[in-house]
């Protein structure tokens, strides 16, 4: 074993901290969250995710486009920002078990944070409807995972029922601590840009994240850190677009499983946020989601799960329709990592699957396939 002081020649105090790492959103923003000295901080180092300039998207739209890459969180989605808060507050209340309904990422996050805290997570997911990566995470992190023979909305109804009538703490985004934690993403954007962007694009499922960004930016305006509120632009999949349609969808259908939600829990809050921010809700087809997914991975270099690409599709659609003034600053939040649900990357535009070319063990042959001429 080496002691930390041996890793640096600059610091001479034995045992001194030699590098400062990001400490997770509760520690970084303790003065702006509802926590106290009595709150045990359960963190896996979430937040502090990169805000990446996307030249390819700027070139396509004439806007200054930045990607907030939330797939870089510990369990691979933005859900960790809310989960650190929800599990920490549950621990403060003495909880021994938490429960959630999930389209996948909430279960992965709840399972990781609960097990880190030494308590149990039970998760309800729609049978056969969640991506393999997410299912694997929840199982690996020791959750009691049950596949319910219904859709996400059924799972959430039951999770709420259980939390009301049994000794188990609900950590879905109807738990206000989740949205509190998630608002920190807006703080990070403002720190990097020095102001709020003109537009903030997000995918919308339960609309908790849309609501959280709006709250984060509103607080930045209130404390004088920004000159404006961004216009909040949210996107739902066309087969699962209750807010756009103005009524709940009983059988939501989209390949973007993370936003396959027919009755959003934060519907009213999201309508208010749209109203206050002069925002917008739009619907995007699955074909356009996959097209945006390809642009993001092949032109920008960022790999996301399908639901996360919808903001990019939304920007391309809105820019094409003339609603994004040239030179506007646009932040698109991409919510989950591509490794969660990687199969879509192999799907080509015509619906067939990519099979990489097979070659013999032969340098000349491989050089010829690669189109390399001998120097
Ligand atoms: C949960 C989730 C969403 C939807 O967020 P809401 O707060 O439910 O609107 C979008 N993308 C990914 C990857 C998610 O995990």
UniProtKB/TrEMBL annotation:
Database matches in PANTHER family: L-THREONINE DEHYDRATASE CATABOLIC TDCB (PTHR48078:SF6), THREONINE DEHYDRATASE, MITOCHONDRIAL-RELATED (PTHR48078)
Keyword tags: Amino-acid biosynthesis, Lyase, Pyridoxal phosphate, Threonine biosynthesis
Tryptophan synthase beta chain-like PALP domain: residues covered: 42-336
InterPro entries documented for this protein: Ser/Thr_Dehydratase, Ser/Thr_deHydtase_PyrdxlP-BS, Thr_synthase-like, Thr_Synthase_bac/arc, TrpB-like_PALP, TrpB-like_PALP_sf
Residues forming coiled coils: none
Pfam families hit by this protein: PALP
Modified residues (N6-(pyridoxal phosphate)lysine): 79
Binding annotation for pyridoxal 5'-phosphate: 105, 205-209, 335
GO biological process, alphabetically ordered: isoleucine biosynthetic process; L-serine catabolic process; L-threonine catabolic process; threonine biosynthetic process
Record protein name field: Threonine synthase
Native organism: Cryobacterium luteum
GO molecular function: L-serine ammonia-lyase activity; pyridoxal phosphate binding; threonine deaminase activity; threonine synthase activity
EC number in record: 4.2.3.1
Reaction catalyzed: O-phospho-L-homoserine + H2O = L-threonine + phosphate
Protein family membership: Belongs to the threonine synthase family.
Role this protein plays: Catalyzes the gamma-elimination of phosphate from L-phosphohomoserine and the beta-addition of water to produce L-threonine.
Annotated metabolic or biological route of this protein: Amino-acid biosynthesis; L-threonine biosynthesis; L-threonine from L-aspartate: step 5/5
Co-factor requirement: pyridoxal 5'-phosphate
